[in-house]
Amino acid sequence: DKVAAWYDGWVGDKGSRYHREVALPALLDLLDPRAGEQVLDIGCGQGVLAPYVVTRGANYTGVDASARLIALARRRHAGIGKFLVADAAGLAHAAALPTASFDACVFLLSIQDMAPLEEIIASAATMLIDKGRLVLLLPHPAFQVPRQSGWGWDERRRLRFRRVDRYLSRLAVPMGRKERRLLRRFHRPLGDYVSALGASGLVVRKLIEVPGHWANAPPEQRAATQRALAEFPLFLGLQAVRTPI
Predict the structure, then answer these.
(1) For the segment 161-199, what is each residue's pLDDT rounded down to a tens digit?
(2) Distance CA 205, CA 238 (A)
(3) Which of 91, 90, 82, 84 is nearest to 53 (CA)?
(4) Which of 11, 86, 194, 228 is the most exposed place for a label (fewest CB within 10 A)?
C-alpha cells in the first residue's frame, strides 16, 4: 500500500513502455486466452492486463495484496472483470476464489517480487483446473540480477556487453529509494522456478526468452548496442500445465 501511488504513476492505465512493447505481447503469446476461459492474474497491481484478456473473450479476475492497488484497478477498469484483495500464498483461503476453477493463472512481472516461491506456485496450482496452464513472465534470472548485472562497453573491441556478477546466489534486494525500499526483488536461479513448478504438478511446456528493445547509448555505440539487445534476453516466459500428481 505504501508504494501504490508510485507504482501507479509508473504503470498507469496501459502499462509502462516495457509492459506495452515487451511484456504484454510476450505474455499474451504464452497465455493465448480463449473465449469463455477463466483467467486469474496474481499480483495484478492496477489491472493493466485486464482489458487485453477481456478483449479476447476470456473472463478476468485480478488479485493483489495491496488494497490501494485493487481500488485503483477497480477505478481504472470499471466493468472489466473482478478485482480482489488476496494473499498470493493463500489463494485457497479467499472466499471469492473457488479452487480448481481457472483455466489459466498468470504472473505478469510479479513473481520476482514475491516469496516464498514454492508456496506461491503451489497456491496458484490449486486454482487451476486439470490441464489448466500457469504462465510466468519475469526478468530473466540469468541476465537481470538486481544490482548484480548491467550493460558495459568495451572501448577496445567496440562492443556492448552484458555483465553478470552473481547468478546462483539467492538474493532479496531492496529496490529504489525511500519508501520504495520496502519492496524486495527476489533473485533465484532458473532451476528454482522449474523445481517449484514440478513440485506442484505443473509440467513446463513452453519457455521463451525475450530481448529488450532499447537502451540509452551515445551515437557511436548505438549499432553495437542494438546488436547486444538482440542477443541478450532480458525477460523469461514460462508456460506450465497442471497434470494429476
Answers:
(1) 999 999 999 999 987 666 555 688 999 999 999 999 999
(2) 8
(3) 82
(4) 194
Are residues 238 and 168 in contact, defined by beta-carbon separation less than 8 angstroms? no
The grid cell for 162 is: 552484458
List, in order, residues 6 or more apart from 12 with CB less than 8 Å away.
Answer: none
Q: How far is CA 145 from CA 16, 21, 174, in A?
A: 20, 21, 12
Angle, helix 67-76 to helix 4-11, in steps of 10 degrees? 30
Q: Give the DSSP letter of residue 216.
A: -
| Contact yes or no for 164/116 (Cβ under 8 A) | no
> Could you tell me the sign of the dihedral formed by the alpha carbons of 68, 36, 38, 20, in that order?
negative
> Beta strand 171-174 with 233-242: parallel, antiparallel or unpaired?
unpaired
Read off the C-alpha cell for 101: 476453477
Task: Write out the three cell numbers for 71.
Answer: 481500488
Judge whether 144 and 165 are in contact, CB under 8 Å: no
Element (H, E) at 54: helix 50-55
Q: How far apart are CA 96 and CA 16, in angstroms?
A: 30
Strands (DSSP E) contained in 69-124 are 82-85, 102-108
CA distance 48 to 110: 12
